[in-house]
## 1
Amino acid sequence: MEGIGIFLEGISKAFGLILSSDPEILRITVLSLEVSMVATLVGAALGMPLGFLISSRSFHGRSLVVAIINTFMGVPPVVVGLVVYLLLSSSGPLGFLRILYTPQAMILAQALLTFPVVCGLTISSILALDPSLKETLKSLSAPRLWEAAILLKEIRVGLITALIAAFGAAISEVGAIMMVGGNILGYTRALTTAIMLYTNTGEFALAIALGIILLILSFAVNLTLTIIQMKYRKRR
Amino acid sequence: MAHVALRSVRKSYSEKEILKGISMDIQRGELISIVGPSGSGKTTLLRIIDGLVPPDSGEIRIDGNRLTKENAPTIRARVGMVFQKPLLFDASVYDNVALSLKFRGVPNDLIRKKVEEALDLVKLKDLAKRNALTLSGGEAQRVALARTLVYDPDLILLDEPTANLDPANVQIIERALTKANVEMKTVVLVTHNIFQARRIAKRVALLLDGAVIEIQDTESFFNRPLDPRTRLFIDGDLVY
């Protein structure tokens, strides 16, 4: 019964926090959104072209490369955090950047998480296309750029799915940003790392409140992307 | 000089020989029909003439120029191909037809005129704004034909363009092909429908198991076939 009480208190606190526009909560929320959105865009900027390249050219070992990318779609965030931490630590190869425990490090870690998600889903979208599409374009003498533009249009719903999945992976993870961001109050504290902290310190109602804010945020972003996805779905 | 000249064209897939040394000449302005049962190599032959797949051996000459991997895109620009199952793009009927001209850098005002003419020819003017993916099979095939005719190719290759279509759609497509042929376009029509071949072709070739069995003018092909297998095929008695 006590658990339910804490949960209900958390819900009422969540709405209280949202309505009161608590500056610290606002800062945490904005940082979470910024980091995850930028990481999703970076992951997409790298993952989409690479996915396009891998799926539209046949080369020796392509299946192996696709299998590796698919494996990394499910890589544990804490492992990515560890790798980025080692890269950015003062003795690491990228230590000279001096960005460990900054939002930039958090973006880098989450971008490494979103990149294989976007790349893998781009590949599967292209491989799922009707094989006669490319032959039709070739037969109609489509120039390379036109061919790429039409292929992109044909897989647009799959690409939006990739963005939804990547953003979901980024906004919900805690392991990577905790390790490379350090959960510093007012600087690198995000919604997921704050939830973990408040749970550890016994402030369950606050943790639940932040969890609800996280869910609302995630829902709002996904709803927007889903509306776009439904608008552009194929009529086939 | 023949518009299309094939010499000893061979092609195999997975060790199965699909084309066993095809040689034939197709003259400019001719409407030739290649008939034969399913699996006889008709589609592969068309794909090879369009430069979509290379032959294992032999040569193809279009207007005297030997077709190679390097010059295929240039030669293909004057060739149109209509596939059995047309793949239309997720766009309006108008845009699907206009794309072939956009690929060729045709100015917009000319595109409008040519697309309207092409849609008129296949009786689809009223559906110009409809999304092409919502069309029936017959309408879709007519869009595919329009997007080929719109860029005025010298050589039109058609792979079973009227398979499974109702008589009204068949008639519209056949009329459009006959008109194109009157305008001195070379038309190569692959079909297993011998009645269609008889209706519109000037010459007919029978392809059987990857080899040309007989090639004659339409009247002789149907009334005085030289090979007994042609007679069996015409009569529907050929077992394969």
## 2
Amino acid sequence: MTTRTDRILDGLFTWVGRLIVGIGALFMAVPALFIAMLSFSNDQHIAFPPKTWGVNRYVDLFTSDTWAAPIGLSLRLAAVTAVVALLLVLPAIIGLKRSNLRGGGFIEGASVAPMLFPVAAYAVGLYAVFAEVGLLASFQGIVISHVIHAVPMVVIILSTAMDQIRPELELAAMTMGASRGRAWLGVTLRLLTPAVAGAAIFAFVSSFDEAVFITFLGGPGLVTLPKLIFDSVQFGVDPAITAVATVLMIVTSALLFFATRLRKDVR
Amino acid sequence: MTQVTATSHGADKTGGAQDSVTLRVRDLRKSFGGNEVLRGIDLDVRTGEFLTLLGPSGSGKTTLLRIIAGFESHTSGEMLLRGRDIAGLSPSERGLGMVFQQYALFPHMTVADNVAYGLRMRGWDRGKIGKRVSEMLEIVGLPHLSGRKPRQLSGGQQQRVAFARALAYAPQLLLMDEPLGALDRSLRLQLEEEIKRVHRQMGTTVIYVTHDQEEALVLSDRIAIMEEGRFAGLDTPTALYQRPPSTFVAKFFANANLIPATASADGSIECRGSAFSTQTDLRGPVSLAVRPRSLRLEPVTNGLRLSGAVVETLLLGDDRQVKFDVPGVGPMVALVDARQQSELEPGAAVTLHAPAEEITVLEA
């Protein structure tokens, strides 16, 4: 039996639910839209609403030396991180999945573990280690920290993709006369390619976005783009960061969108 | 059926000659840890024959096939392909064909490219490959699908492509690992016919693994029945069915009832009050294998008589399956003509007869 009160309550809950979802979406999207809007202002300071409109901040961003070096460093770091992470994980995953190695599950689990620790705590630990071995404030040190940060994601992506490639495919290729290496390259690795590209993009983005490790381990010499943004907010706001943030958001989401598409192609 | 028997008899006569044997396996053994899964397999696969490895799961049939294919190593024994020792060779060097249960087509290649794979590995030139691929697709009835990707095909179509792919380079020996296991019944029947037709057409030597007794009956020239890593019987389907060599084969393959009995010095059999004469050399306690079809309601002059109580009857079209219980022996199954008017109500007493010539006397 539905009473009047029930109906009112039902309606109420439906609307409350919608409201919560709406507010959530708003909270996630509005800052991004806000920043994007502010980046197209020619005001001296960041202010809302903008009094003047224009692309001065983008001109600043792409012409001033302040931003060029950190962007270059970030790109280099991200590229090296992606390559190193793949070179580490790809052979390991194939080894784990194509052998009857005991404890393989444990190794895979352990490689995902860095994901579970708070990044800041991990960074403090690395600081102590790096101080011992002289890796503080070095490019290699930052690469190591970024690789650690990227490995869990790369492991998960490649491991899931490998699970979908049946070992019989390689065996079939081999019975038909392909050597083990040829079967592996022409079939397994070929089928893994979209996942490899996807994993590379994720690793790249995770490094490009990373602000915690660099703050702890980078020292004064190494300034990446996220670090510079932090610094510029701390020591007087350079309005160009609105433009930086907008470009970052667009590039990152484009890359991630592309990576997701690639992963879908595997199936 | 007559053709099958004729072929195997023909092969029998030349059985000793090396050139008529495609694969020779001698005392092949395989252990996993301390567990022996293959315990001395001896097998001669004759050129052109369709040989089935039949057995329940865990009997070692797939392991044997995988060892022949080169996917797994064996512990000891010999394997000769056309007289050449293949034990140390990699799968690619053995030059065999293989069809898997889950098709194992390359998902990133078209149907045509899949069929062409083995030919490309053998360095055939483009023109020859193209001709051969369309010829093979013609044989399996899929010439119109050559440009499709495997995921656009049904299971039956995928398995046909896999079949064409494995046969394209005319391997000396084709291995098939439960190729119909993933398909539904009507499709299975259809593909059975097709496999039989292509086998006849191409004359390839085939080793086929299945746990499906009917599939084995329909397809095979000879069947090797596997039990716990050994051959429990290796013969033509007819021979295995009508004269099972062991109680395991009788039960697993011929669906026979097994009845304990006693054989006396002159070869006559005593069983639950009835006695009849046979040619058996066995003495003492024996097992009688009686197929359901051999049991009938009419008395026979020389044969077995069993009395019991009907448990249930099932109408199977022309036949009526009668399950009945013989005190001291246990549940038995008989197949009687359904057109006969009979009082086979559950609980009714029933006496069934089997003629001596349809009874196989086996070691108990």
